[in-house]
Request: fold
Amino acid sequence: MGEVIRAVVQTGPRQLEMREFPRPVIGPDDGGLLRIEACGICGSDVETYKGHLSQQWLPMVPGHEPLGIIEEASDAACARWGVKPGDRVAVEILIPCRSCDLCLAGRYMSCRNRIGSHGGSQPTSRGLGPWGGFAEYIHLHPNSILHKVRGDIPAEIAVMFNPLGAGVRWAVHIGEVGLGSTVLILGAGQRGLAAVLAARAAGAGTIIVTGLSRDAGKLELAHSFGADVTIDVEKEDTVERVREVTGGFGVDVVLELTPMADQPIRDALEAVRWGGRVVLAGLKGRRPVELSTDVIINKALTVVGAFSVDSRGYSEAIRLIESGRFPLERMHTHTFGLDEVGLAIETLAGEVPGQDAVHVAIVPGAS
Ligand SMILES: [Zn+2]
Ligand SMILES: [Zn+2]
Reply:
């Protein structure tokens, strides 16, 4: 009998159970084994937990933002990843084929033959599991994508590579925020805050962030990350306020990051300047949204959808974390142990009275 490792398995909506798995035995073609230090939680974990996303992969081990230490890896995997046992790495969600035309063009997020994902679908080939980050250890498939992270940063901070990666990619790479840009960020969740930070690091001019009245703490945090103006949308009109701040001109770039709400999309089109860019990343539960496409035409806008994060986004986010230039510890609000994943997700979802969560992480060693 080999050793066993523990992982949290989701079996249905709001149903999680701790299970034991045989500890994967890593052969020469099997990639490696990662000891999880921390795994972040985001809005999509909340949706998966509630059962709003596809159930076709259940039962599965969720947790798609894993950070950990290489426990062991085959020589071939070490050479390919440029790591050795003992290194700390951040793991990307997707396990692509690395061979199809889209992979070779750098668009591996749309890989035609994806092998699986960490925290989602399970690889069928060389799949030793568990895969999701809510576990003591995970198997790293030979095709898993890893990023080295400096070892001396607290795990709860280092694991922010995922939300920060979204901030960098959505604001800077897709939004094209640069020196002097005026930016409106709709939504002050962890990704909104990450976008503030990325926009500030990229040299943005004026950064404006919106939130609800109950987001007062997050808007305060936005200020400390470099936002110039915050708007409580329950007390002020977003578009009017943006016009005021920009001398009637509108902003260069708008990031729409609010979940489920329609009005922010219409606000985005109104608040952006003529010829500006609007990045959409706030999911609306597949509902149609009513808006005037004439505004897009008459203002010659570029409207772009932003899906997930890519390698460049992650690696630049990790450099930002390692720079120590931002008070990231202020964003981390909650740490939970592996046996508290349900509570952790409910805390991030705002279902736990009195808890105002921004960034929540599972740390298997905690509790
Ligand atoms: Zn996530
Ligand atoms: Zn591919």
